[in-house]
Design goal:
Oligomer: single chain
Mean pLDDT: 86
Strand content: 15-25%
Largest sheet: 7 strands, antiparallel
Organism: Paraburkholderia unamae
InterPro entries: AraC-bd_2, AraC_XylS_family_regulators, Homeodomain-like_sf, HTH_AraC
CATH architecture of the largest domain: Sandwich
Distance between the termini: 75 Å
Pfam families: AraC_binding_2, HTH_18
Radius of gyration: 29 Å
Shape: elongated
Keywords: DNA-binding, Transcription, Transcription regulation
Number of strands: 12
CATH class of the largest domain: Mainly Beta
Protein name: AraC-like DNA-binding protein
């Protein structure tokens, strides 16, 4: 059961995007097939008694094609294909169900979100009062965002394993669509940019909330990213302390091995090299700005966590091409 606020805030295309409103079934079939793909349909026997026309609204915003469909009759739809990506059907009113060719079934009322691709060969069933909003998401962009999230390229396209989005993830999806629709009056450049960003958010929302063939790797990548950020934050806040790799791993909430891997996946140096680089930068900045001229270089090095002055001098020279004393003399002079 979806909360009333979810149903009241459903995303609806404005009337100016009306593409078709007709009682002519043949005309409706041709228009919808042109908008998506050829399909077969079976209308209920009592369709001639109905007074509800087929209604289609459609708009292209940036790279997104958005359409609302209301067939006005109880109908079964069997599309030949759904394009080169993922077709996402959001129920706005009435009842809709979807069956994949392997028998997986999902049904629901307003707020339910169905997913399908060409591999699924779906059949849709619409009640006479049903209205849906459809968005097509390109497979190429889905794959690219998933692999970027994982940190490496996958060996096969992303395939979602469930025919629907769980109800808990429906509201963010509807809010994103509603935001898109509310900005259709924005200047073309702004609208294009917003559409691109919203398309990415829609895809990322599905990747995070619907099981797919890379779910475990995405979850691992997300965990690794959190560990990396925690470690960096801890190091930055404790530069002056005597830190060990175990200290950093403990603060990040992971093992030393996981911590090292997190830094590798982030394209960064090892955790201890990162720590040393930050310390060297702080000391170099202090020397370059002429601060603390009354303090010896050895004391500055000790303050920033270098326990061995000779090793500090060596690392400083490697990093900046001169000794700490040369830096200070050059700035003072």
């Amino acid at each position: 059961m979806y909360p009333p606020s979810l149903l009241e805030d459903r995303p609806v295309l404005p009337q100016r995007f009306l593409l078709l409103r007709t009682m002519d079934i043949a005309e409706a079939h041709a228009v919808v097939a042109g908008l998506y793909a050829p399909f077969d349909w079976s209308l209920s026997r009592n369709r001639r008694r109905g007074s509800h026309p087929v209604s289609v609204h459609a708009v292209r915003s940036g790279s997104l094609n958005v359409a609302t469909l209301a067939y006005g009759h109880e109908v079964d739809i069997r599309p030949d294909h759904v394009g080169c990506g993922l077709l996402v059907t959001t129920v706005l009113a009435g009842e809709v169900s979807q069956t994949w060719r392997d028998g997986r079934y999902a049904g629901g009322t307003a707020g339910q979100i169905f997913l399908t691709s060409n591999d699924n060969r779906p059949t849709f069933h619409y009640s006479a009062s049903a209205e849906v909003l459809k968005v097509s998401l390109p497979q190429q962009k889905i794959d690219a965002l998933c692999w970027q999230w994982m940190g490496r390229r996958g060996t096969s396209p992303v395939r979602f394993c469930l025919p629907k989005v769980e109800s808990g993830a429906s509201r963010p999806w509807l809010l994103l669509l509603d935001y898109l629709i509310r900005n259709l009056d924005a200047p073309p450049e702004t609208q294009t940019l917003l559409s691109e960003r919203i398309e990415e958010l829609l895809i990322l929302h599905l990747l995070a909330n619907v099981t797919h063939n890379y779910s475990d790797r995405v979850l691992h990548a997300a965990t690794t990213t959190r560990e990396y950020r925690r470690a960096r934050s801890f190091v930055e806040d404790h530069l002056c302390e005597s830190l060990t790799l175990a200290d950093i791993a403990r603060a990040a909430g992971c093992s030393i091995r996981s911590l090292t891997r997190a830094f590798q996946l982030a394209g960064d140096v090892s955790p201890m090299r990162f720590l040393q680089e930050l310390r060297l930068q702080r000391i170099h900045s202090a020397l370059c700005h002429g601060t603390e001229t009354h303090v010896t270089i050895a004391d500055i090095a000790l303050h920033w966590g270098f326990g061995h002055v000779g090793e500090f001098n060596r690392q400083y020279r490697i990093r900046f091409g001169e000794s700490p004393s040369q830096t200070r003399e050059r700035i003072v002079s």
